[in-house]
Amino acid sequence: MHISSGRWLYGLLLALTTSVLWGILPIKLKEVLQVMDPVTVTWYRLLVAGSLLLAYLAASRRLPRFRPLGRKGAWLLALAIGGLTANYVLYLVGLNLLSPGTTQLVIQVAPILLLVSSLFVFRERFSLGQGIGLAILLLGFVLFFNQRLGELLTSLTAYTAGVLIVLAAAFVWTFYGLAQKQLLTLWNSVQAMMVIYLACALLLAPWAQPLQALELSPLQGWLLLACCLNTLVAYGAFAEALAHWEASRVSATLAITPLVTFASVAVAASWWPDHVQPEQINWIAYGGALLVVLGSALTALGPSLLAGLRARKARRLARA
Predict the structure, then answer these.
(1) Does the chain have fewer CB atoms within 10 Å around its N or its C terminus?
(2) Mind listing the pLDDT tens digit for each residue in 291-319?
(3) Domain region containing 263
(4) What is this structure's pTM?
């Protein structure tokens, strides 16, 4: 079993770095999507990230071996490739229809779906703390969509379609998450991501239009490069954070990602109003976003909080 190094402050800084990078990502993607289609943007992101990981693994002579996979591993790999490809494309299609903040908040459903799926697939336990966190998260979503609940429930507008598409992106990501969790018993995380990224890029190649990059403005070109590197750097910081801090606390820290997006949109809209539009939501919706983040954090921390309470109770009984 992996034991963290105990350098919690370093782990916290790395987790915050990941949260910031993921938080500003949809703002950059939104600008690039004005010229390029979602499939092509996804193809560039996966190809660049996968190629850099390939170069790193080749240089360190740590390229993955495929023979240990076997038939079961091959099916898991195919599931991970299909799930991540669909997730990336659907996320961008939804982002085209929604604001960055709304998109980032809705995609918070993904780790919750993974948690619920793990209850059935891996027979993991669901604690009382996690149940409370899930209830708070659902209440937060109701408050966040308070201005458009009628639209979401009664008509299929572009906004409703965007929310449904991002929910679909979260749903297919669950298949990727479950498959990758099993693949990590055969490969390390870098090897698994290299294979998955390059395979996803190969899968999308027939529909990608690389020459669209020539139509980008200089600013959009730099933003596309930043989007390509974002996944690699953010994931690297995330993996390193797990080496120094408990996974539950890292996940709880990453729950603030939507708040980073909302704050970044507000700043960018004031500095670059020609490129970034402010979020059109009221204060009730902002309160709902805070509850979604709180619910996500509680869901991630549920087991460790319960274990901590039990440990304190045991110490009190031992002293009595």
Answers:
(1) N
(2) 998 988 887 776 666 655 666 666 676 66
(3) 8-319
(4) 0.85
